[in-house]
């Protein structure tokens, strides 16, 4: 029965993610699911809750959500879950987003797994690719070495500022390694973090950063 509902959810959300830009498309969900299962193998957690939360975690992302639309709630209702399961999945999803450093802390092991799995996809080689894909979709500069990264901001300021893609590394991506909450997530983040540092150093060498 659980697998049937996961398959039902998968079919519904795939259609939604295929409409998003490459930074948050269906491939993103596939990668986060892979990360989550790798972490799950080392943790004692409810895989059913984790998998449904991964599938649903971006369907109502404020970056793509239309006014008066609540796809997350609608899909959860169609899955005919228990009230407890629905509430748990929504609590997991609520803790995934970074929100300019204003995100909700992950408290349950399921929330920690999904948060780590999603953030792992925001760093390393794939994180670099996604950052520039999203920046391109929003018409942002590749880099601006004179732009100062913000250390404190509201969620609204984080979402609305048209900073360059490279500035986003300093405002979010380079911070994620130290915010991992599972041991597996921490280990996986190390190499990805170092790759981003190497990339930024090379980018500065090739451009007017000259560092």
TrEMBL record:
GO molecular function: hydrolase activity
Domain named HD: residues: 25-123
Pfam families per the UniProt record, alphabetical: HD
Classification via InterPro entries: HD/PDEase_dom, HD_domain
PANTHER family: HD_PDEASE DOMAIN-CONTAINING PROTEIN, SUPERFAMILY HYDROLASE, PUTATIVE (AFU_ORTHOLOGUE AFUA_1G03035)-RELATED
Name of the protein this chain belongs to: Phosphohydrolase
Organism, as annotated: Planococcus donghaensis
């Amino acid at each position: 029965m659980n697998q049937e509902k996961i398959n039902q959810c998968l079919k519904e959300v795939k259609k939604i993610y295929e409409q998003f830009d490459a930074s948050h498309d269906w491939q993103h969900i596939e990668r986060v699911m892979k990360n989550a299962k790798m972490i799950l193998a080392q943790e004692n957690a409810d895989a059913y809750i984790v998998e449904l939360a991964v599938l649903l975690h971006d369907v109502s992302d404020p970056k793509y959500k239309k006014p008066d639309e609540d796809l997350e709630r609608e899909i959860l209702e169609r899955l005919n879950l228990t009230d407890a399961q629905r509430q748990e999945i929504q609590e997991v999803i609520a803790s995934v987003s970074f929100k300019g450093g204003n995100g909700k802390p992950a408290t349950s092991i399921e929330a920690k797994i999904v948060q780590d799995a999603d953030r792992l996809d925001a760093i390393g080689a794939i994180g670099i690719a996604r950052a520039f894909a999203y920046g391109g979709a929003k018409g942002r500069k590749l880099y601006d070495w004179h732009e100062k990264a913000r250390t404190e901001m509201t969620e609204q300021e984080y979402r609305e500022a048209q900073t360059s893609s490279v500035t986003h590394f300093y405002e979010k991506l380079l911070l994620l390694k130290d915010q991992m909450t599972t041991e597996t997530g921490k280990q996986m983040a190390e190499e990805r973090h170092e790759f981003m540092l190497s990339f930024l150093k090379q980018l500065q060498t090739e451009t007017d950063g000259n560092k």
